């Protein structure tokens, strides 16, 4: 019997099919979702969508059966992006479940759950209870041989019906951003064989029967294929943007868009094929949403924009310059969504290219962010490289992970060094953020992982040289093996043979070939090896002569 605690995560369900997530488990989760979320909220119907993975149709059908066994009706919207499911939940005011594992390999699947109005369900808002009830149902069925669930007390089964909301979703997004009078743009879109291949033709073209927009869309990998034959559908990894970058330049396009597997995130490249940072997109869209709110009658001094602690400093600067109020929050979907709702913010953006909108039920939608970028570009005579430069004020390191035994001591070393550099401002909203108050401007944030012995570092500075200098100094301090001492320049202890077996730069970029999760150093039975950090995978790969051998047939299975 699967242990649901192994794959019911903080914000969603994500496990290997069928070893962890199968039709029996999906049915139990459906029953539990209905009893924990839908019934107490007074919902008579639940909406369910699914992505292009081979396992998604049968898993979503089993989940629907579990819901129906409580007497609640189910509307299956079929193939959908995650934000299309959020649209259905918001527009129909129904709780919902989306079957997707985003960019994870084909052997994975998962479930994102929400309450009516696309309000998220996480560990602290019902997911833990859903998990526990589903586990009880599964355990009871295994013990007495009974069905996982029976009908409701009145013996009624809910009805399961199908409804296509794609055209309604596309029309709703278009109603929020007008492109009709703009100059014509050539747009390369890389769907990565994910759900962008389903939604882009409906929203940006005429696939949903809507009017033609001033866009020439050049498709890359629009065929829905959950095996991801061309590249991983995760644009956050630079190698997955290369085909898009090349196509934009070769086609003489004005812009390139890349969507992840469930098409809830959107990444942008300019006409030169250069990536535009999610922080710059956050600032650009924030400016447009502020203007839209003011045009709708809002007092600009009451308009709020949410960003997390590692978003570029340019975002709150630009928001403040426009007269609105920046609201800073911790990293993570649950924190930014909660802050969006409590602050009634019009927009929120993250470094991970998740973009949240008040007028989309405070949920995230990469497609709406893409429409804003296309509108801004179409309204301007300037190329995107020039338009985006106004929002790319500083040089950033990106997030760098370090395996650290004593995270508190490592953070203390970095903090003591920073204090010695002149006046600094320190806050602990999420990890430790240090901002240099003199010239040149720089700041860094160090956060501990909740699940691994990792410290995550982000650095930003006024220029690239300063950023690199601060990055290298702080990384050196974090990665020292010596205990914390007042003198941050104290000589570090020598690293172990295991730690020295792999160059640090190589360790940072490698991912498990099986599941694309990060790897960590460990001492294996036959010598140094890299072990996948995902508990569902756990494969271990040997290191020979400082080179990892990332071949499946040589991987050691988890014990």
TrEMBL record:
<dbReference type="InterPro" id="IPR005844">
    <property type="entry name" value="A-D-PHexomutase_a/b/a-I"/>
</dbReference>
<keyword id="KW-0460">Magnesium</keyword>
<dbReference type="Pfam" id="PF02879">
    <property type="entry name" value="PGM_PMM_II"/>
</dbReference>
<dbReference type="InterPro" id="IPR005846">
    <property type="entry name" value="A-D-PHexomutase_a/b/a-III"/>
</dbReference>
<dbReference type="GO" id="GO:0016868">
    <property type="term" value="F:intramolecular phosphotransferase activity"/>
</dbReference>
<dbReference type="InterPro" id="IPR005843">
    <property type="entry name" value="A-D-PHexomutase_C"/>
</dbReference>
<dbReference type="Pfam" id="PF02878">
    <property type="entry name" value="PGM_PMM_I"/>
</dbReference>
<dbReference type="InterPro" id="IPR036900">
    <property type="entry name" value="A-D-PHexomutase_C_sf"/>
</dbReference>
<feature type="domain" description="Alpha-D-phosphohexomutase alpha/beta/alpha">
    <location>
        <begin position="8"/>
        <end position="125"/>
    </location>
</feature>
<comment type="similarity">
    <text>Belongs to the phosphohexose mutase family.</text>
</comment>
<dbReference type="GO" id="GO:0046872">
    <property type="term" value="F:metal ion binding"/>
</dbReference>
<dbReference type="Pfam" id="PF03966">
    <property type="entry name" value="Trm112p"/>
</dbReference>
<feature type="domain" description="Alpha-D-phosphohexomutase alpha/beta/alpha">
    <location>
        <begin position="285"/>
        <end position="394"/>
    </location>
</feature>
<dbReference type="InterPro" id="IPR005841">
    <property type="entry name" value="Alpha-D-phosphohexomutase_SF"/>
</dbReference>
<keyword id="KW-0413">Isomerase</keyword>
<feature type="domain" description="Alpha-D-phosphohexomutase C-terminal">
    <location>
        <begin position="399"/>
        <end position="472"/>
    </location>
</feature>
<dbReference type="GO" id="GO:0005975">
    <property type="term" value="P:carbohydrate metabolic process"/>
</dbReference>
<keyword id="KW-0597">Phosphoprotein</keyword>
<dbReference type="InterPro" id="IPR016055">
    <property type="entry name" value="A-D-PHexomutase_a/b/a-I/II/III"/>
</dbReference>
<feature type="domain" description="Alpha-D-phosphohexomutase alpha/beta/alpha">
    <location>
        <begin position="168"/>
        <end position="273"/>
    </location>
</feature>
<dbReference type="InterPro" id="IPR005845">
    <property type="entry name" value="A-D-PHexomutase_a/b/a-II"/>
</dbReference>
<protein>
    <submittedName>
        <fullName>Phosphomannomutase/phosphoglucomutase</fullName>
    </submittedName>
</protein>
<dbReference type="Pfam" id="PF00408">
    <property type="entry name" value="PGM_PMM_IV"/>
</dbReference>
<dbReference type="Pfam" id="PF02880">
    <property type="entry name" value="PGM_PMM_III"/>
</dbReference>
<keyword id="KW-0479">Metal-binding</keyword>
<dbReference type="InterPro" id="IPR005651">
    <property type="entry name" value="Trm112-like"/>
</dbReference>
